[in-house]
Structures are given as structure tokens and as C-alpha cells.
Design goal:
mainly beta, Beta-galactosidase, Chain A, domain 5, 5-stranded antiparallel sheet, globular
Amino acid sequence: MADKVVIKNSDLSVEISTKGAELLSIKSKSGTEFLWYGDENIWAGRAPLLFPICGGLKDDKYILDGKEYFLQKHGYIRFCEFEVEEYSDNRAVFLHKSNAETFTQFPFEYELRVIYTLKSYSLDVVYEVKNISDKTMYFSIGAHEGYLCPEGIEEYSVVFDQSETLNSYILDGNLLEDKTINIMTESKVLELKNEYFAVDALVFKKINSNAVILKHKFSKKETRVEFEGFPYLLLWTKPNAPYICIEPWCGIPDGVGSKYDFANKEGIQSVNAGSIFERTHILTFKD
């Protein structure tokens, strides 16, 4: 049975589940809820962590060192129970260790920490992957936070911190085609439209920005997402649903022509034996 941890300061209160180390709520002192509430009739997730893959694999399988393994889309970690390793008023560290069950899907020994720290109106989210195997570990990791848009996403814009020409890769099921569709040319402001998500997600491989702001057009409400070191960015929602996911990923779905080669998969990350891979994304809120 999953438990819940609450961290807070004078500006924000954050609830986190021990299942998947998943954010459950981000609320300002004035009572504004920023996080999607996870309606099972629309999308039950709120902010699942993606590990050891982001997106889907061709036929849900990969080959490593001559052996075949199976992993569902986005991996398994969102279903795993985490230990609360450290906890204070404004900080919580969640730890998951590899075990016999994970080894059947992902043949590495590791310690995965998710570290949440509140700083005024900001929440730092750190992913720390420690390879305790005796060989190089290959993996992907990514965020999938859903932000509440109660008025509907078309009242919101995504503002990039650099001018962008956005070409979204076309999805064939869980896999990426080589073709793209242009979404925006030489602009910083992407006006959200439900039609963008009629098929699935917007998938951007190459962008200039290290941060975006989700802005409500008719109020001061906004969420800034900083993601330096994450090479891919996705936007996703169910059509006409009142949330938008802003997803910085260190990984990408397989292409339709995948040869199942995990070590050479596009977007794959690696960490040497005994070493630590770390990425931080920072969420800052205004209401």
C-alpha cells in the first residue's frame, strides 16, 4: 500500500506518493492546484517517472549482450514502491533499488533516487541513477508531469525561452516515423490546440530552449519548467482533457525501423560501473 509524503514551505505544499515517487499535488498558499488530479476516466496518471525507458520499444523488446528482454512502454518504475530515505519539511529523498524482479526486465543493479526540494515557489526534481553493476549500464529516464488546465488547454500557451522552429515527429503507435510535421516557425510562443493531440503527443528532438513557461492567457497563473541536460521534449494530453503534460526526457521512443539494439538505441544514456548519472529539472509556479 503506497504512502504519501508532504513537503511544504510558506509558498507551496507538495504531496508525493511512495509508489513511483510520483507527485500527487502541488498547491500554492492561496490554494491554487497546479498538478492534474488523475481522473481514471481520462488519464489516471499525474506525474509518472519513466525508467528505464521513455516511450515504447518496437514489439516491446530489446536485445542486449545477445539476450532478449521485454519492457512495456515507459518502463516499470512508476509501479514500484520507493523507500523514503530522507525526509524533512522541505525535502524528501525517495530510493528504489534493483531486485530479482526488475533484473528479468532490465539486467543491471542500480540505485535510483528521486530528490524533491522546495525553494520558495520552486520545486527542484533531481533524478540520480547509480550504477552498482560491474558493467556499463544503458537506460533512459524522463519526467511526465501533468499540469492542470481547468479552463481547457486552449486558454494556455507554452512560451519557450529561445526562438524555435518546432517540427514534431509523427508517431506510428508507440514508435516514431522519420517524418515530421511543422508546428511552429521562428517563434517563442506555442498556442496550445486540442487538434495537436488528436493522434498522440508532440515530440521534439532538437530545440534551442532549456526552459518553457505554461502561461494562462487570462490570468497571472504560470508554470515554468527548466530542463537543461534533457535532450528531448514532449507535450501530451488526451484530446479536450483539462491538463497538459510537459515532458523532458533523456530518451526517445524507438523508430519504426528499430533493430532492437539497446546499447545503440537513439537517445540511450549510459553510466559506467560505480558511477552516477544525474539530471535536474526545476518547476516554478505563479498564481
